[in-house]
Amino acid sequence: MCHRSLRLIPNLILAAFVAIACHAEDNGSIEKFAQVNEGRYEVFAQGGHQMAFQVNLFMNEMLRQYETYFNNATPKHAARVVVFASNQDFRQYATTAMGQPHPWLQGYCRPMTDSAGNRSFELVVYQSGTVWPTLAHEGFHQFLAYELGQKIPIWLNEGMAQYFETSHFLGSTFVVGGVNFTKLQQVQLLIKSGKAPPLKDIIEWNPSTFYSRAEIAYPMSWALTYYLLKSGHDPSVSMEFRRYLQAVKAGGSDFQSAQERLSQGCQRWQADFNDSFLHLGDSIGLQ
Length: 287
Ligand SMILES: [Zn+2]
Hints:
Strand 4 and strand 5 form a beta hairpin. By secondary structure, the chain is of the alpha/beta class. The chain folds into 2 domains: 11-150, Collagenase ColT, N-terminal domain (Glutaredoxin); 181-284, no CATH class. Helix content is 54%, strand content 13%. It has helices spanning 11-20, 49-69, 87-98, 131-148, 154-163, 181-192, 199-202, 207-212, 214-230, 235-250, 252-279; strands at 34-38, 41-45, 79-84, 107-113, 119-126, 168-170, 173-175. The radius of gyration is 20 Å and the shape is globular. Zinc ion binds next to helix 4 and helix 5.
């Protein structure tokens, strides 16, 4: 059994610690996983302490990035993150939690209620090649669930979750908001083929509309979020987005008027959006 709290300690000491760390049993019971509780995350890792430590470090850094956009609201409880090393165990765990998972499921965030009635949101992933983008993506959904509950528009929830997917450490610097080149190419194809929906429509979609058009909705919501956050040539765009985020948090009539303002903005920005994304990859040779 490995129930220990690990402080942020130098790598050398960590290496020694990892060497004596107990290994997770080869099954899906997370009580036997290595555990690291630090900051606001309680991480269970089937792959051992080093993985639990790295995930905890990454998630706490991600949290600082999420909070930048939502004025540092604090979740009531430490958020739980479960990292499977085995895809098979991950799927078995997911099936128990919510029924048969989709074959391409890489991770998920789901609400849980304990015996005392406390509600929390469990983030579950497995160590695929995309474990870090998946943690950043699902971590944002988890953060927002604590922050805003279910009130957030689907385009914003999925758009911002994708915006954070490229987050990574570069030396001691944490880099956020890079271009996702796969999504960029998808967006360029949609614009060139005339299949990109108007931005003002995207912000109105409800979840069922969004998910029924997933192959368009995901890349377009990433692109719209990227545009709203990174339009350095026109600071009024990102200012308008900041106001929108505040209104989403406030809800009610504030949100309704912000939604209308954003819709008008989307119509003004549409041509510039198309032009920006068609040329965004020029400097690196994307066509
Ligand atoms: Zn998502």
